[in-house]
Amino acid sequence: MGPDVPLLNDYKQEFFLKRFPQTVLGGPRFKLGYCAPPYIYVNQIILFLTPWLWGGVGTLLYQLGVMKDFCTAGLSGGLMFVTALALQMTNLYAKQKTETVERMQIQNTLTDEDEFEFSSCVGSETVKFIIPGKKYIINTLFHSLLAGVLCGLGTWYLLPNRITLLYSNIGGTVVIFVFGWVTICIGEYSLIINTATETATFQALDTYEITALMRPFYIFVFIAVDLAHR
Fold this sequence. Notes:
By secondary structure, the chain is mainly alpha-helical. It is 66% helix and 0% strand. The protein has one domain. It has helices spanning 10-24, 38-63, 69-97, 99-104, 124-130, 137-157, 160-167, 170-192, 214-229. The longest helix is centred in the middle third of the chain and has 29 residues, at 69-97. The model is unreliable at 103-112 (pLDDT under 50). InterPro entries: Pecanex. Its main location: membrane. It is found in: Membrane.
């Protein structure tokens, strides 16, 4: 390879810039191959940060002395479970609403991503694009339950008072709190919204949707180590 040959040509660079953030963040598509309405990105950001919102509610109540730590975890986990279930039900409704139209359309799997059309902020096309949904009802319930458990344990694990006891440093507490919640948001998004494309390369063969469980599994492992230590 000569010195003037770029590592990534224009096509590969565009592909990399589109897929790399999606892989790192667990599924959000912030760079598409076409011009999409702003609400597509806003909706994804809101859904991505939703676990942090519910965890923040629980954390605030704990810091104010209103609730104990285990009650805080239960509250945040319950709110996340209801939210995850509601999102999946919304996807099922959107699919049923457009089922007749889809039967009349000829699908081209090579251009589905490049030819998606959106009609409104909460339209059926928007919902199905952002939340593809699960293949089986049992996975809808199971993944929603796991999302609640993950949010609850994450809230308990990242309570500022607990982190401060470990490191006795405000700066370290803030850094761990922020990056910890970003990590949990990544796991939750992959679990209940949309799994990252690169980690689902063989998604057609992923009959039981195991890929969506991998990021939450790694997070559970870290939390389990802390639980065992305490």
